[in-house]
Amino acid sequence: MTRFYKALITYLEDKFEKSTNLEVRNLIREQFQGKCEYVTTCSNCHTPSTRSSYFYEIEIHLAVLHLLNLLYFLCVSLIFLPSQGIKMLEEGIAKYIAEEELTGPNQYMCDKCNAKHDATRAIRLTALPEVSLNHLQLQNYL
User: Fold this and answer.
1) 0.85 exceeded by pTM
2) Are strands 48-55 and 34-42 parallel, antiparallel or unpaired?
3) Are residues 60 and 12 in the same domain?
4) Are residue 64 and residue 22 in the same domain, yes or no?
């Protein structure tokens, strides 16, 4: 589904950008594109480095302990207790934007220190799209 979605959005964006109508030309970006920042902070000098990026989907990882848990999630989120389903999605999004440690072989090359150091990296969602595709990435732990 994700490949199809990416291909469709790319195709539509390319076609619509050729339009003389300004509303049509920017339709895909205005409706489906969000913006985020990757913020990496050196643990040595505490200097943050920010890189902006655009996105059309957010990949949310959900831990599924068993097929029955998946069915439970779908039933809870869609039928019985939508608020529980929303809570599970909120937890997945929180994991997506949580800070990660860059240590060992993944150390960050700090421009200010001119050396590799441990660092933290986080994602900040700075602009959300009008229409959001949340790709649920199920991790099966049987």
Assistant:
1) no
2) antiparallel
3) no
4) no
